[in-house]
Amino acid sequence: MSEPLYDLVVTGATALTGAPASQTIENAVIAVSQGRFARVEAARPGEAPPPALKTLHLPGRVVTPGLVNVHTHANLSLVRGVAEDLGFAPAYTPGIPQGHMVTPEEAYAIARLGALEALLFGSTLINDTFVHADIVTPAMADIGLRVWSCGRIHDVDFSGVSVGRWDYVDAIGERTLAEAIELAERYDGKSNGRIGVQLAAHAPDTCSTPFLRRIARAAEETGLRVTTHLSQSKIEVARIRERDGKSPPELLDELGLLNDRLTAAHCIHVSDTDIARIGRAGIHVAHIAKGNATGATIAPTHKLRAAGARLALGTDNMHADMVEVMRWALAVGRIQLGAVTPDWQPETVFEMATMAGARAMGLQDEIGSIEIGKRADFVAFDFRQPHLTPAINPLGNLVHVAQGRDVEIVAVDGELMVENGRPTKVDADAIRREAAVAIEALWKRARGN
């Protein structure tokens, strides 16, 4: 019986599959059929590559699963190089462009820039929240990657937050929640399953307690997962303590939101009691290793993991390089311990960036590893470079030395979205120009020009 004609075959590369049974395969053969991995194994001596419509021979490259970024805000590239040095998240910082200032046209242009950056750096899925999600969701998906998106759900009037005014308005909450549910009805599961929605409750302090309860009911009624910021700042913790007499994790637990269908970004300012509560709930923690460290904070990742929390990775604001985030996660984890330990190694953070991210998205059976039957999302890094030579331990090189800029190929469902480091579906230069114009206009308005 003759072998089937595959849609795509990759040969010659070293594969870091992310699968426990076959973590590393040298001189791998990876075959794709109908958007899924159909063959994953080491090449057999003397055997010709299997027949395919397209064959990529990639010696000197390292192929990994697509990286899964469980928490980002593509539009916030607009404040990169500035907000990192202000000490607060952009929504809480006066004097810089705020989400409520962004027009639909500007959101479209800037989100495409953020999605393109993520794709070029090897992310095949981003979980994005910001504004004008009805417009930016399909716009980002058109770049070629998987996009889970939602407008930020809140009932606070954000125009006052950056100057310390906390006004909760029922109409704002009803509008933002209705828009999120409508977005899910319109887009969830569309584009061959490449678009999804999680309910993005912005944060405990930007949602009133009754509104958080309403979001919990909506999640139960719709079956949608929830994403939020949790214990991200001392301001949030103090605000919830004053308003509710509880810590943010205690509040979410009481309201039914602290569970294994929640992805919570940061979890920095947590007590031992909070950590135990988070662990019992089995939530997914979006560890923002670089962004937190830039702001002079570190999440207690070892305590969280030991308690039962599930750690995944996100880039959050201002950049989209998940390879860099793996490196920061490894480093800040070791700094906390004051030692290099067997249970906090490159494979630890690689798993956070791949399979753990897939679990947080509820997609562990579909993506996150290179295994037969899973969707063929993969990335090829070009290791034929001085800074990646020698490759005695390819995974060690990837985490310690590589950059997103070393990505040569990105495939989603076996379709090549990036070749030779350039996108195949869009004009990168045009996207950059259009975003630059939009960002300049926003900064002028923010400065009152």
UniProtKB/TrEMBL annotation:
Gene3D superfamilies: Metal-dependent hydrolases (3.20.20.140), Urease, subunit C, domain 1 (2.30.40.10). Pfam families: Amidohydro_1. InterPro entries: Amidohydro-rel, Metal-dep_hydrolase_composite, Metal_Hydrolase, MTA/SAH_deaminase. Belongs to the metallo-dependent hydrolases superfamily. ATZ/TRZ family. Residues 62-416 form the Amidohydrolase-related domain. PANTHER family: AMIDOHYDROLASE-RELATED DOMAIN-CONTAINING PROTEIN (PTHR43794:SF11), AMINOHYDROLASE SSNA-RELATED (PTHR43794). This is 5-methylthioadenosine/S-adenosylhomocysteine deaminase. It comes from the Bacteria. GO terms for molecular function: hydrolase activity, acting on carbon-nitrogen (but not peptide) bonds. Keywords: Hydrolase. It comes from Ancylobacter aquaticus.
